[in-house]
Amino acid sequence: MSVRTRFAPSPTGYLHIGGARTALFNYLFARHHNGQYLLRIEDTDKQRSTPEAVRQILESLDWLGLGPDEPPVFQSAREARHAEVARELLARGRAYLAFDTPEELAAMREQAMKEGRPPRYDGRWRDRDPAEAPPGRTPAIRLKAPRPEDGRGEIVVKDLVQGEVRVAHAELDDLIILRSDGTPTYLHAVVVDDHDMAITHVIRGDDHLTNTFRQCMIYDAMGWHRPHFAHIPLIHGADGAKLSKRHGAVGALEFREQGFLPEAVCNYLLRLGWGHGDEEIVPRDRAIALFDLKDVGRAASRMDYAKLTHLNGVYLRQADDDRLAEEVLERLAKHGIDFGTIGGDRVRALMPELKARAKTLEELAGTAAFAAIEGPPPMDAKSAALLTPEAKARLADLAQFLTDAPWERLELERWLRDYAEVKGLKLGAVAQPLRVALTGSTQSPPIDAVLAALGRTEAVDRILAAAEE
RNA sequence: GUCCCCAUCGUCUAGAGGCCUAGGACACCAGCCUUUCACGUUGGUAACACGGGUUCGAAUCCCGUUGGGGACGCCA
Fold it and tell me: Where does the Glutamyl/glutaminyl-tRNA synthetase class Ib catalytic domain start and stop, copy by copy (predicted)?
């Protein structure tokens, strides 16, 4: 039977980076086994689910290159089926009608907590005749949890990541599978959908580990085969607490905004909890070839933005120049920086040098701005301070001589070295004032590359402007 | 409170009883390279939570302690 996995987010907000990793692992596992990777939107909570969240989840997955192999399944569209299974369980005597009110249940929980007992449903309607129900109450359907004679049974799950995990039947209570309003509960809907979608491997966050035992009860009651389960550890913030906004970016699309490349984010997420020897750079194809659930760690890991940033730099340097140029120009436009066709060409021309010096697209856009615009670049204080009277005189001199210089990068470099030698100067004494004049910054790509990319007219204009300031 | 899971440098990890004087990566520090910055490169600081077993031998197996996390809804 071919492997089928699914990612099942609930559309109550943006796609969390932890969810993105769950999706990635589901994707990689399916691809590794030549199986299918599906998406199910768990929108049975009508109060909190929004179409906007659905849209954002799809966009996030698309950006990460984790789009599903089949159209997404919307859980809300399958409520009739969920109810049908619940009624079947009822008909088979594996479930029963429970007429409790929410208030009664709350009181029951409170009482149990007060007495130091675990808050579980006591099964008061399990063997009671529905005829005894108080008038006007609509019942929920509860599943009958196993109650072995000796009271010592247990449910065993052989989790592909966590290993063998067991929970005593005594820990389980009769869970609601169909609410009194006829809608399914999450635990029930998940089981029915995973079964109907022929999911073979359920890979999800380990916050679902204890839910698994409740779900197993439903599989068993229906006589369905349980899928394999793999519960992967959660991602925490740098302080070890649950990852939240105060830790920094957590939404997948926030990473895009901040200038991270999707392939870098995926690589980072993969290495968080999964490893293959000392390999750090694991592109998609390699990840598919290597991925195995047995190599997934069992401990929660912490989000490290510094390492993500480093990885992003690695991927940035490998990325295609035109792609990066497009991204950068888009960002410049968004920041209200004016540039024309020529500016775009200059950014493209300088991209090989630019990308070696940036770790994110946002940073790249910042360092590319001087090349995109027309005229003298804005100058920071540190750069302006470099424009001493001597430096300005030097620039004026350079502007004059550059008029006749050969305009090609390697030739320019030689020309600059000759110039410095003739004038008895260190190359740095020539390059730094030039850099400041041309880029408005003390840091930039090699000055010969900058000159070549700007073109003679623009370069000389900027040098003259700085000399006359 | 009850149940479940987890535990190697600050962080991510390698490690399946001897290959471990514990390896790699990020971050940090110092040097080299150099027209600035970055890249690259060389070196450095830095960890098996603790206590008991098992064994000739334990980071690796077992038990306990401590610490962290998760779950206990007519939420998902």
Answer: 3-309
A411 CA vs B41 C1’ separation (Å)? 28
* Both tokens assigned to A200: 């073979």
Distance A297 CA to B48 C1' (A): 16
The CA–C1' separation of A106 and B22, in angstroms, is 53
Identify the H or E element spanning A176.
Answer: strand A176-178
**Neighbour tally for A132: CB within 10 Å:** 8
pLDDT per residue rounded down to tens, chain A (469 residues): 799 999 999 998 889 999 999 999 999 999 999 999 999 999 988 888 899 999 999 999 999 999 999 999 999 999 999 999 999 999 999 999 999 888 888 888 888 777 777 788 988 888 888 788 788 889 999 999 998 766 678 899 999 999 999 999 988 999 999 999 999 999 999 999 999 999 999 999 999 999 999 999 999 999 999 999 999 998 988 777 777 777 777 899 999 999 999 999 999 999 999 999 999 999 999 999 999 999 999 999 999 999 999 999 999 999 999 999 999 999 999 999 988 899 999 999 999 999 999 999 999 999 999 999 999 999 988 898 888 999 999 999 999 999 888 899 999 999 999 999 999 989 999 999 999 999 999 999 999 999 999 999 999 999 999 988 7
Binding-site positions of A for ATP read 245
A275, closest nucleotide (Cα–C1'): B13
How far from A364 is each of A250, A277, A303, A360, A377, CA to CA, in Å? 22, 32, 23, 6, 16
pTM to 2 decimals? 0.94
Identity of residue A35: G
CA of A188: nearest nucleotide by C1' is B76
Contact positions of strand B to protein Cβ (< 7 A): 1-8, 10-15, 23-27, 35-40, 68-76
Of A105, A149, A137, A102, give the one whose Cα is nearest residue A124. A105
Nucleotide nearest to A113 (CA to C1'): B1
As a rounded value in angstroms, the CA-to-C1' distance for A235 and B5 is: 14
Interface confidence, given as ipTM, is: 0.94
| Active site residue ranges of A | 245
Binding site as annotated, residues of A: 245
